[in-house]
Amino acid sequence: MPALAEKERRLISERTRGALAARKNQGAKLGNPRNAREAAARGRRIQVVEADRFASIILPIIEGVRRSGATSLSAIADALNARGIRSARGGRWHVSTVQNILARPRPNCDSLL
């Protein structure tokens, strides 16, 4: 079975290389046509927006955990894990992930009015 899988991977690779070479010979431009710097900047902006969205959802939960008596970062992380709440990347909470959420700048609500 491993030999068959290896052969299939090799065949797929050869077909892909052949197809890309054919497209290039036809004059097609391969790769990302966008400016890499602009694409990277856009990606960073999207990451910040997603992180802000996640923080706006999780901060009220963290405040509730704090009101229930968990005051240290470790206790908050343990409470979030005990409740089955996953971090932004779908993993477990750690002191550093709680600290990062709490350190995020909070939007000024007055500026939104």
What does it look like?
The structure is a single chain. By secondary structure, this protein is mainly α. It is built from four helices and no strands. It has helices spanning 2-25, 36-67, 73-82, 95-103. The N and C termini lie far apart (63 Å).
Anisotropy-based shape: elongated
Average residue pLDDT: 89
Number of helices: 4
Biggest β-sheet strands, sense, barrel? none
Structural class: mainly alpha
> How many beta-strand runs?
0
Low-confidence parts, pLDDT < 50 over ≥5 residues?
109-113
The amount of beta strand, in percent, is under 5%
Order of helices and strands: HHHH
**Straight-line N-to-C gap:** 63 Å
Which value, in Å, is the CA radius of gyration? 24 Å
The helicity comes to: 55-70%
Chart the SSEs and their pairings.
Layout lengths: L1 H24 L10 H32 L5 H10 L12 H9 L10
Short description:
The protein has 113 residues and is mainly alpha-helical. It has 4 helices and no strands. The protein has helices at 2-25, 36-67, 73-82, 95-103.
Top keywords for this entry?
single chain, mainly alpha, 66% helix, 0% strand
